[in-house]
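Aim 2 progress update. The chain analyzed this quarter is reproduced below.
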Amino acid sequence: MRSKIKTLLAVSFGILLLSGCGAKGEDDTAQQRESFDEAMALAHFLSADNGKNEQEPSKEITDFTASCRITAGSEAGYLVLGDTDGEYGTLLLIGASNSGEEDQVVIKSYKHGMIDPGFVVKPDAMDITGGTGEFDLQVEVSGGKADITVCGKEITSVDMPFSSLGCVGACKDRGMGDAYMDDLTVLSGGQVVFSDDFDGNFVNELYPYDYFGGREGAFSPAFIKTEGHEGNMALSVPSGMLLSETGKDVAPAFKKDFELKKKDIKSAHLCMTALGSFEAYLNSEKVSDNFFDPGKMIFDHYLNYVTYDVTDMLKDQNELKIYLFHGFYDKGVGFAEVAGIWGDKLAVKGAVVIEYKNGKSEVIPTDETFLACTDTRFRFNDIYQGEIIDDRYTETEWVPPEVDGVIDAFCKLPVLAKENESIAPYKELLPVGVTEPVPGHFVYDFGENVAGTVKIDLGLLGDSYGQEGQVVTFRYGEILNSDKIVNGDGALGTVWTRNLLTARATDYYVFGKRDSYEDVYFSHTYHGFRYLEITGITKPIPEDAITAVAISSDLETTGEFNCSDGIINAFFDNSVRSLRSNLMDSPTDCPQRDERLGWTGDAQAVSGFAMYQFDSKELYRSFLKEIRAMQNTDGAIYDVAPANSCFGGHSCWGDAIITIPWNLYLQYGDKEVLAENVSAGSRWVDYLVEHSEDYIFSSGGYGDHLSMQSVSEKISDTAWCAHSSKLLSKMYKALGEDELSDKYADISDKFTSRWQQEFIREDYSVEAGILYPDYECETAYCLGLAFELFPEEMRQQAADRLKMLGDYGGELFYPGYSGMAFYLPALCEYGYGDVAVRVMTNTAPGGLANLLSMGLTTNGEAVDILRFSDSNGDEYSDGRYYVNGSLNHGAYSSVSEVCYKYILGISPDENAPGYEHFYIRPMMTSGIASASGSFKSVRGDISVSWDSGERTLTCTVPKDSTCTVVLPNGESSEVADGEHSFNW
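Predicted structure tokens:
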């Protein structure tokens, strides 16, 4: 039986080993952890150079001419020329865009998947195409120079960033627009070495084709889309990189055989870390089902190791095998313009730690006694782009590995036990249906949008399903192309992928000899999808042979909710799916496109709901550790963590360093969390003060990101300054630091006073407005109420005005990321719970529940992610809509905190946090007849059930807690642990 990871939690929480074994005592566990630390100190990094793309000198192509036609609008389309390392080698991009009367040529270079900031050439815009946007590009390369001509006009000459041509391709600017390529030709020495007219005529002399059947185009076996354009078929240029085939970036394997006396062993553990991610096998059995271990880190500050109990897996004769993948080290770290890789050499190190019954111990570390293989079945892996598994490769040649070949700084890093939960499967889904919208395109519907991957049971396939070398393509999407989608990108019923941006999200499987039936499991990448489109086979894979595997951080579910309103229940379920899809070792924004990053604004917004729904304490503590490690010397908090490409200093995003620790303190009652983060929080607030203008702050950031209303950045940013400094004061108060508490309370008062002076009218009224006209919006009011910025005597009027704005706006959900978590609570707190329910259940376009009415099972990036009108405000005909981004974002899950905090009424007491004392004060309105749910707090289970028709409320209070129960009629009761029933 496969062992489960043992995640070592912090000493202050008893350091439990989370495995099939029982909990150890604190002293025993500390001693064991010390032995693991010592074992890791003995281990050496193993690497392997697969020499994937070495080019024979006689085949070098240094002088050549490349030409094509690009048709593009505002997003440039590019001809791409690269070396033999392909996508993650060195690339030259020559592109052009059109914005009406002006054309813009751009030349740039990518290295290791990142833009080279020192190689961007952007000549002055000019009229080249007469507004058509049709560019005839020609690049003549000779003597290390590239002369670039567009439509016969000489544009510029640049130095070539690489010496010999190894691949050719296309891409376009990141976005959701269209671009096309046609008549692509590369000549060298008077010979065509590469060409494709996308009408069936092609040549590829750059790389041999060794798959079953013949090439279908110059880019075979890669999946491409062609469309009719200007009377011919043309390549529909993706945002992601499309390149001709080069040698593969193979995941290496390392192995060691060793002997033991099984009967003498008391326990055995495998400890492992990596610059990248790894997958370990012991005696041909997979050690763990986790994904991407050891997970995300600030790789230049520290490394985390994970520990597995492998006692039951050992024999007298043993083989340990470790595969090494990219993980979040140098892939999945952002699209090219923002990516920051941590290094360019993968490595793994670890040890088997054995404790014998006689009290002795043994360590088997990674070292020069291991062997390496660079020809495994795992030919390519990338978090964004996908995975290639080729079962023609059988690991026959093993050679000595490279030992400690990484830079010295990595060898000197502290290696620490991973304290938060790993990413792991939590659910498997069988298809609910399969269609064939286009001959040979089989589309599987898994019923809900998830983050994860698929696995295929080859043993359930007959021999007719694949010949050796046959390539099968797997493409993923959140929705299908339909006649309702204005910006469709394929035939009706095929997967819609435009919102993936530069992520290809495409996996490939190549059949081997079929003499064995190892599962195909694309477990070294992940996708955000409901639908899977398979091509390359002549009949569909049986539905019982294909499974979607949903993954997330392996967190315990702690919350349940249900009420009498079906729309609220459905929105809650969607919120849980989106939240779970975006808890991937750290909170992320989305699971499908070329980000999947730890945006701090998204993370802090949803943290309150997350801490009700899941035991997410260690996940957020780890995330905060990453934020602190990256904090700038001037105090600025960066917008994304972990990351090796830093930008930030923006309100609502940087405030995560204060709001998340405060939420953790309220939910778990742990002052250590405050102590860990209060200094970083102080530097952040000091930064806000220094960069404000007399306590009015505008960060030049995102403001009320993706709001459906016009929101002044300075009113929301200044509000967040007042809020964070107030919370920081409370943090210091809880820690007994009264002087610092007073300091930041004073700063909060100054931000609050200036907010009032700057934005509140002297002649205010509910009818005319409390705020000046330029600042009238739902976000300003809900922040002013939630952060107590309005004077106390004015707050009910401000809430009345907020309700009035909601009435004017048709009870749509206007706030964006700055205000989304506070809009419904502001209504609920001031007597407008019925309005909050109507806002929450509004299925109209722009309503919070609109996606529900469209059949979607997750929350979108924005409330108006489906746009039913064009940019001029003209409504599309026949109910058609434009899809404008991610359909699975975690941020709007924050709204569902209202289900726990207001509908059930469970809320912590900041004066007795961690549910030492708490409140149950459910909001009962005409829109909800009954509700029930539970929350497993740090002290035990809390449950609430009420029925407004029966006028009954029952609740459960855990041991060592007290609770104030407030009934709808205003009566309150103080109760201790146990079950309680009330009537009113």
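DSSP finds 15 helices and 53 strands in the chain. Confidence is low (pLDDT under 50) at residues 1-25. These observations will guide the mutagenesis experiments scheduled for the next reporting period.
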